[in-house]
Amino acid sequence: MNKIVSYIIVIIAFGLALFNAYHIDFKNIWGDDSRTAIYGVLVSLIVVVIILINLKSLKVKEKLE
To answer: For the purposes of burial, counting CB atoms within 10 Å of the CB of 24, is it exposed (0-12), middle (13-18) or buried (19 or more)?
Structure first.
């Protein structure tokens, strides 16, 4: 995966995490809509972590070559 594409995916994932965090109702945290928003935040942050791990592995690969 290209570095530019990876950075674009990270930006989109952060945007989706913020969007979903905005939709969390803290008065009814385990309601249907809030639960879906929480899942969206968690999935977006997991995607960010996976892409950052991929970017670090690309840097290590470049140094080894």
So the answer is: middle
The pTM score is 0.84
Query: The tokens 């945007």 sit on which residue?
Result: 15
In tens, the pLDDT along 5-55 reads 999 999 999 999 999 999 998 888 888 878 999 999 999 999 999 999 999
Q: Of 56, 64, 40, nearest to 3 (Cα)?
A: 56
Phi/psi for 30 (5° steps) reads -100, 20
In Å, the largest CA–CA distance within the chain is 54
**What letter represents residue 37's amino acid?**
A
Place of tokens 């385990």: 30
